[in-house]
Input
Amino acid sequence: MGVLDRDEHSRLEESYGRAESAGVRTAFSNPCFELWLLLHFVSGVSGGQTSKNVQDKLRAAHQAFRDFGKSLATPHQRALNGQEAAAAKRAKMLIANCPSLICTAKSGHAKDCRVLDRIPSTEVWEFLAELGIVSW
Output
């Protein structure tokens, strides 16, 4: 499984499709990986999110992330520890509220749901489920 986020990648849909066609499962986050981190602390994240917006919300959500850059240092890891199940539950709720209206928390994103339409959304929880850290 690979981890992939939207950020500003111009060929994301093509890359995502090629990975899926090759049998590589992806843990996709849109608009950015920091959405997964944010879901450890807050619920109710809804559409129209930008990377900057999500990063600002993460910095405001927990003291450990006030100076967050792009790497997870020990204080960040400590803040996240034990919150994985809550983050997974919140990520599943984002799928249930997918703008495509064809996705469900139980089934995930539908085949006909365009990857760029999945905003906000993160599939990182699926990676943790495969590792046995959270449940499906």
